Amino acid sequence: MTERIETLPINDGFRMPGEYEAHQSCWLLWPERPDNWRNGGKPAQKVFTEVATEIAKSEPVTVGVNQTQFENARSHLPKHIRVVEMSNDDSWIRDCGATFVKNDKTGEIRGVDWVFNAWGGLVDGLYFPWDKDDQVARKMCDLEGYDYYHTDDFILEGGSIHVDGEGTLITTEECLLNPESGRNFPNLNREEIEQVLKDHLNLQKVIWLPNGIYLDETNGHVDNIACFAKPGEVILAWTDDTSDPQYELSKANLEVLEKETDAKGRKLTVHKIHTPSPILITKDESKGVDQIDGTLPRQEGDRLAASYANFYIGNKIIALPVFNDPKDQDAIELLTKLFPTRKVVPIYAREILLGGGNIHCITQQIPA
Ligand code: KQY
Question: How many domains does the chain have?
Answer without folding.
Answer: 1
